[in-house]
Write a structure and sequence with these properties.
13 helices; Rossmann fold; 6-stranded mixed β-sheet; 3 domains; 5-stranded parallel β-sheet; single chain; alpha/beta; 374 residues
Length: 374
């Protein structure tokens, strides 16, 4: 057989493999172990994707589903179920509802159920369990570790030293990336898309000297309004979108502070500020209610109602980031958020083009040598 042809066919196989990696939605990290560090600072080794996953927390469940792992989710908390969330992306979820991990009363049931599944062959001690949000996660983790579960990861859980949990957009992106690696063995373009939104905003604001002003609010029906100081995803979205958080107060470590009078004072002191109104308020009230009842009917203030998922540990935070940028810089940003697979994504287009050119050239060269003979 023609030696040149053999060599070219070998090259074609190699480049086709490279092209497959480029064109795929998940980019492989290659052979060997991947180390994931959870929010509590513990490290976990993954040599292959997890076979099953437990997600305690709506954001982790949604992230696992969006990164291709909905069929791997075997158990969730009450607040992750489709019946509770009404999130269409979780409609196909077929997982057992383990209740809440807000308190410790449910811990023994959860542990015993998982142990029974291991005995029945429905679960492995090496399967991944993700716990989020509540201090009880530390107690539940230790109970699960004590019976042999060795991949119990904690994310976005209040620190044990009593300090305030502070979360940034960057941490949310890393969380999405970690979940993708755990489930698929590689990085998903969802995390890349979250970075793309951030980078597009940075590029768009190149040369913009006057920073826009933003004010994020928090609301509980029992205690009313407070303003977002620092450490919340909302505060981070304002800053990551290129704005100035007018509620930032370095004299307190609290993530929120103040009341309605604080809001009025900040609005009066900062003309042109954009207010980001939480979904916890708008689910039962309108923007007009807020404008009339809190701002005295002032129509000059821009008010943006937030989606609940924007202030959460999931890929939707990227949509929130883009909405924040569009609201604060309407002359610079508009329209839907950019996506990795959009035509405007230059780096991805280049990779696709290079892969296609390599394949085409090699196939043409192979055909030439077959026709030419030895």
């Amino acid at each position: 057989m023609n030696v040149k042809l053999v060599s070219l066919i070998s090259l074609m196989i190699i480049f086709m493999g490279i092209s497959a990696a480029i064109l795929g939605g998940v980019v492989s990290d290659g052979a060997g172990a991947t180390i994931i560090t959870d929010g509590a600072g513990r490290t976990f080794e993954y040599t292959e994707p997890t076979e099953h996953i437990v997600t305690m927390g709506y954001a982790s469940t949604l992230t696992a589903a969006m990164t291709g792992g909905i069929d791997k989710i075997i158990a969730v908390d009450t607040y992750s179920t489709y019946d509770y969330t009404k999130d269409d992306r979780l409609e196909a979820l077929d997982a057992m509802n383990m209740g809440s991990i807000y308190g410790a009363s449910n811990n023994d049931f959860i542990v015993s159920q998982f142990v029974q599944w291991v005995q029945d062959g429905k679960m492995s001690l090496h399967d991944t369990i993700i716990l989020t949000s509540y201090s009880n996660a530390y107690v539940l983790r230790d109970k699960l570790n004590s019976v042999g579960f060795d991949h119990v990861l904690l994310f976005f859980v209040p620190p044990q030293d009593g300090s305030v949990l502070k979360v940034t957009y960057d941490q949310v992106v890393e969380f999405v990336n970690d979940i993708s690696i755990i489930i698929t063995g590689g990085k998903s373009d969802i995390a890349d898309n979250m970075r793309l939104v951030e980078n597009n905003i940075k590029e768009g604001l190149n040369g913009v000297s006057d920073k826009a002003l933003g004010l994020g609010l928090w609301y509980y029906s029992t205690s009313g309004f407070s303003v977002c100081n620092t450490g919340s995803i909302t505060a981070s979205l304002i800053e990551t979108a290129g704005g100035v958080n007018v509620a930032y107060n370095d004299s307190t470590s609290s993530t929120t502070y103040g009341d309605t009078s604080t809001i009025i004072q900040l609005v009066e002191s900062n003309p042109n500020v954009v207010i980001f109104l939480p979904e916890s308020y708008t689910r039962n009230n309108s923007v007009s209610d807020f404008r009339n009842n809190i701002l005295g009917g002032d129509t000059s203030v821009t008010i943006v109602p937030m989606d609940a998922n924007w202030n959460n540990y999931d890929p939707d935070a990227a949509d929130g980031l883009w909405a924040f940028a569009c609201a604060m810089y309407p002359n610079v940003f508009s329209g839907p958020a950019p996506h990795v697979n959009d035509g405007a994504s230059g780096s991805d287009v280049l990779m696709y083009a290079v892969a296609g050119i390599f394949i085409a050239l090699i196939m043409l060269a192979s055909g030439y040598f077959v026709m030419r003979g030895p």
